[in-house]
């Protein structure tokens, strides 16, 4: 006997609930589960339950070990996704029912009550950053002057490219320092080629890591222009790539794709950019898995713990999201940003939404 295809008592619940038959195939899910996973209720039935696990084997192992007489079993931070979609993380409760079927109850880890601490830097940290910014002004001015002197000398083409890179980075850091000392409204977003942003990050990575890291490009050339702030996006992606390098990665891949009908937060966008930074480094320490985007949280003793917090903030400034999945030897940070097929600004000016300086 299989679980019922529809349960009117569970469908109105706000908690995501799913039922599977004795063979481990999805029989039914309530509206909350389908909405949370970003898929239609009609598409989930007959899918193998274990196929929904986006990373790891905790769900598969639990299904093999779950005894009929055993009470509900809790699995912490399970990554679930439908056919390669964006993973959703939840604490999962599994119960074996009398008919041999399974009841899965998901408690999304980002829906627990309480304020999201990643949405604002503490006041003490803000004050410390302003102090640091003040101290950085003189060294940056010295670097800018040195780069200008070098550019006036007779240097070859390769050296001139490096001098130009130094000048561009000094200018970007100077603007960041100015923003920390005198917060101003964010720059209006402008149409840009995201691959130009990635190429600047590649140049930075090549100068920092040299031949120690292999950088691979996997770009979708059909992507329309993205409305954004190029400097902020360079900073965000560079933070992700530099984290991979510092985690001992030998290979880092930058991948872009267009995705249709993507849910970001509570809004579904007809077209979005999916950018993935994939590396084969040590991965995110398990102890930091739920805190990795918090300011001052770092897996390295000499780390500032600001890189990922800033990258997530930049994603929010562009109405997007930043997520990750990780195991030793394979870490993927995924940046989702809404696109307009014609390069227009969509519903509103992204620069006016959620920017925190």
Automatic annotation (TrEMBL):
Residues 131-341 form the Histidine kinase domain. Pfam families: HATPase_c, HisKA, PAS_4. Keywords: ATP-binding, Kinase, Nitrogen fixation, Nucleotide-binding, Phosphoprotein, Transferase, Two-component regulatory system. It catalyses: ATP + protein L-histidine = ADP + protein N-phospho-L-histidine. Residues 338-357 are annotated as: Disordered. It comes from the Bacteria. The keyword tRNA processing does not apply. One of its GO terms (molecular function) is ATP binding. Its EC number is 2.7.13.3. InterPro entries: HATPase_C_sf, HATPase_dom, His_kinase_dom, HisK_dim/P_dom, HisK_dim/P_sf, PAS, PAS-like_dom_sf, PAS_4. Member of the two-component regulatory system NtrB/NtrC, which controls expression of the nitrogen-regulated (ntr) genes in response to nitrogen limitation. Under conditions of nitrogen limitation, NtrB autophosphorylates and transfers the phosphoryl group to NtrC. In the presence of nitrogen, acts as a phosphatase that dephosphorylates and inactivates NtrC. This is Sensory histidine kinase/phosphatase NtrB. It comes from Luteimonas composti.
């Amino acid at each position: 006997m299989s679980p019922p295809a529809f349960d009117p008592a569970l469908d109105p619940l706000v908690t995501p609930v799913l039922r599977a038959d004795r063979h481990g195939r999805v029989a039914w899910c309530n509206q909350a589960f389908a909405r949370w996973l970003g898929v239609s209720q009609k598409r989930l039935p007959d899918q193998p339950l274990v196929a929904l696990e986006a990373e790891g084997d905790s769900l598969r192992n639990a299904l093999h070990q779950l005894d009929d007489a055993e009470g509900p079993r809790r699995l912490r931070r399970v990554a679930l996704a439908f056919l390669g979609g964006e993973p959703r993380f939840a604490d999962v409760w599994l119960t074996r029912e009398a008919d041999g079927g399974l009841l899965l109850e998901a408690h999304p880890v980002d829906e627990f009550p309480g304020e999201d601490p990643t949405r604002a830097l503490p006041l003490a940290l803000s004050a410390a950053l302003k102090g640091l910014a003040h101290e950085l002004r003189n060294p940056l001015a010295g670097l800018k002057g040195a780069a200008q002197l070098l550019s006036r000398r007779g240097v070859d083409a390769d050296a001139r490219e490096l001098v130009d890179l130094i000048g561009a980075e000094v200018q970007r850091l100077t603007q960041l320092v100015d923003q920390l000392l005198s917060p101003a409204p964010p720059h209006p977003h402008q149409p840009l080629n995201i691959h130009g942003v990635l190429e600047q990050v590649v140049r930075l990575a090549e100068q920092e890591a040299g031949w120690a890291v292999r950088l691979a490009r996997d770009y979708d050339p059909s992507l329309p222009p993205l409305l954004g702030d190029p400097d902020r996006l360079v900073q965000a992606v560079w933070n992700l790539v530099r984290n991979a390098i510092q985690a001992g990665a030998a290979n880092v891949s930058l991948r872009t794709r267009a995705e249709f009908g993507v849910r970001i937060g509570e809004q579904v966008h007809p077209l979005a950019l999916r950018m993935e930074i994939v590396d084969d480094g040590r991965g995110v320490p398990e102890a930091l898995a739920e805190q990795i985007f918090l300011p001052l949280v770092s897996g390295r003793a000499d780390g500032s713990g600001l890189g990922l917090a800033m990258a997530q903030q930049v994603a929010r400034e562009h109405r997007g999201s930043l997520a990750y999945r990780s195991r030793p030897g394979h870490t993927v940070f995924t940046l989702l940003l809404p696109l307009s097929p014609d390069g227009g600004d969509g519903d509103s000016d992204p620069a006016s939404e959620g920017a925190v300086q």
